[in-house]
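Attaching the record inline, Q. Sequence:
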Amino acid sequence: MKVALVCDWLTNVGGAEKVLLRIHQMFPDAPIYTSQYDPKGIDWFSDADVRTGKLQKYPAKLRKFLGPLRQRYFNKLNLSEYDLVISVTGAEAKSVNVPNGKHICYCHVPTQYYWGMYDAYVKNPGFGLLNPLVRFFFKLFVGPLRKADLKSARKPDYYVTISEYSREQIKKYYGRDAVIIHPPVEIKDFKAAKKEKEDYFVVTSRQVNWKRIDLAIKACMMTQRHLVVIGEGPENKRLKKLAAGSKHIKFLKLMKKDKLAGYLAEAKGYIFPSMEPFGIAPVEALAAGCPVIAFAEGGARDYIKDGKNGVLFAEQTAKSLAEAIMKFGKMKFDPEKVSKSADSFDETRFDKELTDFINEKIK
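Structure, as predicted:
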């Protein structure tokens, strides 16, 4: 069987890229088609046959502007030689045509800036001084963009998704049914780091506005709790300015997996303030025996059991999170039980579930 993989872009490290990496390891000979590839931003695919097109000439930082061009690029790709195409996408990669084979779409969530997070995106598109201009043109063109996205959503033969939340969103916006196969998490690597607990919380992710790291900083300043912020991104300067003068907030750059696992194993808790379709990082924290304080929407509902391996907070505000931190402080969590709650999300489970699905659908 001749297989190809497709993804929206490969310009930075994130959860979607971790999923693609695992599928690449399952199908190492399958070429990867994508709109833009930056080996400096993500060095995980040096052994892969990564294929790009005309959009490669644009700088990776312009990715946000290229949605309509990406849709056109993927729609024009000639994938007629493949028996199976697996798209890993939360945006335009599902637009590919597979005339002579089957197309399985591993869809994180319907394109969020068109659908579920449209209001939040319009409020803050993330372009700084250009926000008013971007907001104006986005509102002007979102109608035809949604129409094109819906047309693309009809192309895959089968949908697989990452959480119950995402399954509901795919049904709501695309009218398609999806099977849940939770993303692969490197459980064993994080279980190895078992240490005595210290008096600090951790938040780690790409520092972009919708991750709401600002809530974690504000809440820890309000409750006078120590917080270690691990990661980098365009919001880094703003977040440091927000925490300026506070002795409770510490910033660290991206670090290797073993060192990160150590921080998680020592931490009192992990804070997950964003609304995400799944969230691999908090499951890594669980594996390290670190209970999680998470916003009670999105994928977190699939793995955070309130009072058992973490605490859920109801509103995406600093006040609600601060209240959850105070509640968390009155509770006791067994690191071994917390770690065990992550076992069902390991990589071998993902491999088996995806392989079984492919074998069932591709006779």
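The domain at 187-345 is CATH 3.40.50.2000 (Rossmann fold). The chain has a mean pLDDT of 92.

More tomorrow.
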